[in-house]
Amino acid sequence: MKTPTPRRAARVSAAIAPAAAAMVLLIAGGTPAEALVNGQATSIEQYSHVVSIRQNGNHICNGALVNTVTVATAAHCVVPIERSLSSVEVVSGTTYLDSGGQRHRVSRTYVHPNYNRYGTGRPIDDIGLIQLAQPLQENAGQRPVRLPTSAPYRGERVTVTAWGLTGDKQRVHNDLRKIDAQVMLHDECRTYLQGIMEVGSKEFCTLIGTGTGTCNGDSGAPLVRDSDRTLAGVVSGGLPCARGYPDVQTSVYPYVSWIRSIVPGV
């Protein structure tokens, strides 16, 4: 049987030598984190909501600005850092991990109350929030994404953007990359992953094909709808990396009321 994994947080030094290997953080079961395999280069100006979440200077996860002081990401990105916030920062406004951007200290984190941080396998309700210590100033390279007003539908086009590894145990891509995909609803996704991992009703999947998909370092990465540029989902889990199985994403729409209970006005 294949071993399922969340898109775990990969530690990637923000100062990357051209041939340096990534040091991967192992958490909750010891499986390496998941990044975009065969993604296309893009720029932060095209996806200005995307941020790098770092601990001790290392990129561990991705996130999306939902206002000038709050980042949405995966819960499994938040749990390992919530007791050591002094070592955590969010970097916004840069295409490259090793240069540019603005650094922001973190004041508080939130994990969805239904997320089972102590369970085995890949927990569902995999969504969390990170609050910045001070609001950032919006500009062309750092601007919040809007929350969705409806659930994604079958076949809908979405784009995932992230930093991470180019494949399992492969090199880090220093530049922001994207993959265009289509939504696979949870019922269809379950037929692919039956006996491998649970897919919840508040999740959806994306499947492009063998050799293209998410991998180490993509945890928490935003998926934005092509139609209205709202936040459809965040990268949650799958089988590393790009093996021809669907990647599992947390759908943001079922959690909008929870997000707004913490972040009024978004």
How would you describe the overall organization of this protein?
With 266 residues, the protein is mainly β. It has a single domain, classed as Trypsin-like serine proteases (Thrombin, subunit H, Beta Barrel), CATH 2.40.10. The chain contains three helices and 15 strands. The strands form two sheets. Strands 10-11-12-15-14-13 form a six-stranded antiparallel beta barrel. A six-stranded antiparallel barrel has the order 4-5-6-9-8-7. The chain is globular. It starts with a strand and ends with a helix. Mean pLDDT is 84; it is low at 15-35.
Quick recap of the structure?
By secondary structure, this protein is mainly beta.
Topology record:
Layout: E1 5-6, E2 12-13, E3 40-41, E4 50-55, E5 58-67, E6 70-73, H1 75-78, E7 88-92, E8 102-111, E9 128-132, E10 157-165, E11 172-185, H2 186-193, E12 203-206, E13 222-225, E14 231-238, E15 247-251, H3 256-262
Antiparallel strand pairs: 1-14, 2-5, 3-11, 4-5, 4-7, 5-6, 6-9, 7-8, 8-9, 10-11, 10-13, 11-12, 12-15, 13-14, 14-15
Helix and strand sequence: EEEEEEHEEEEEHEEEEH
**CATH architecture title:** Beta Barrel
Uncertain regions spanning at least 5 consecutive residues: 15-35
User: Mind telling me the CATH class?
Assistant: Mainly Beta
CATH topology type = Thrombin, subunit H
Strand adjacency order, main sheet: 10-11-12-15-14-13
- What is the count of DSSP helices, taking H or I runs of 4+ residues? 3
The CATH superfamily is identified as Trypsin-like serine proteases
Beta fraction: 25-35%
* Terminal-residue CA separation: 42 Å
Mean pLDDT: 84
Number of strands: 15
Dominant shape: globular
For the record, the count of structural domains works out to 1
Q: How would a crystallographer describe the biggest sheet?
A: 6 strands, antiparallel, barrel
Class computed from helices, strands and strand pairing: mainly beta
Question: Roughly how many Å is the radius of gyration?
Answer: 16 Å
